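About this split. The held-out portion is used to measure sequence recovery: a designer receives only the structure tokens and must propose an amino acid at every position. Recovery is the fraction of positions where the proposal matches the reference. Here is one held-out target exactly as it appears in the evaluation file.
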């Protein structure tokens, strides 16, 4: 049963990601928020990095978060597997704790001198679109996966809650990195609860005060609660510069250079 569950996760994940990515790319082409710079090979290299990340996870982790939740339930590990609480409440709290955990993890990746060079690969992209949402260094993905598995084990999250969270996380990352335009009234309503492209784009500004804001992944509440929410970029969305100072050219586009970038002696 556990084998089938993890196999299903590996099969369904790429299908879901591909479908959502396709929708986002069509949306970006039909209603872009910002003019695309047309950097040669950028999208293909971002997707190549995704392929490497997926291979690393499959090779290093026999089970990931969904399989871990199933294992914890079988062995009565974690808070909600030993604490008598109703299933709906455990489900809801688990999703919220997982999202809060990813928010805290994201802030850690920006403040840790050891992890930031890895996360910097994500931020060095010179343009923001849906493919940026899958542009992460493999070593960062390993750390991220270990921390997420740790949260699932600690709280004993229900399998369905973890499965839903994983789906929402994939969809959200592709959505809020996308270069898409939305009607202002709709965007304003959405951002009262969720992270929108206009909210997350600020986080990718080359201006540091903007970059150190809007760390949320699904829900916007954590940024508001912990004082890291910025409503708009200092230079406006159309005029803001994406990326990092000192990072340009092949260093931020070519797949080999992306893999080497964290170990480059050059710094911001």
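Reference sequence for scoring:
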């Amino acid at each position: 049963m556990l084998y089938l569950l993890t196999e299903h996760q590996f099969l369904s994940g790429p299908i879901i990601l591909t479908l959502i990515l396709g929708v986002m790319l069509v949306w970006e082409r039909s209603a872009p928020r910002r003019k695309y710079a047309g950097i040669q090979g950028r999208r293909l290299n971002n997707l190549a990095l995704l392929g490497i990340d997926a291979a690393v996870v499959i090779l290093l982790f026999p089970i990931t978060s969904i399989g871990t939740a199933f294992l914890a339930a079988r062995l009565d590990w974690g808070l909600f597997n030993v604490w008598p609480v109703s299933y709906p409440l455990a489900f809801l709290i688990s999703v919220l704790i997982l999202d809060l955990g990813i928010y805290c993890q994201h802030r850690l990746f920006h403040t840790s001198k050891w992890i930031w060079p890895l996360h910097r690969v994500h931020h060095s992209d010179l343009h923001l679109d849906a493919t940026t949402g899958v542009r992460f260094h493999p070593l960062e993905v390993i750390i991220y996966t270990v921390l997420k598995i740790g949260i699932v084990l600690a709280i004993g999250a229900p399998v369905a809650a973890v499965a839903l969270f994983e789906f929402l996380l994939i969809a959200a990352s592709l959505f809020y990195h996308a270069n898409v335009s939305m009607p202002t009234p709709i965007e304003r309503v959405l951002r009262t609860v969720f992270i929108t492209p206009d909210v997350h784009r600020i986080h990718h500004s080359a201006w540091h005060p903007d970059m150190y804001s809007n760390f949320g992944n699904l829900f916007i509440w954590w940024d508001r609660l912990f004082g890291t929410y910025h409503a708009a970029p200092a230079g406006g969305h159309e005029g803001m510069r994406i990326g990092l100072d000192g990072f340009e050219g092949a260093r931020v586009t070519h797949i080999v250079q992306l893999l080497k970038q964290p170990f480059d002696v050059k710094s911001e």
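Annotator remark: The radius of gyration is 18 Å.
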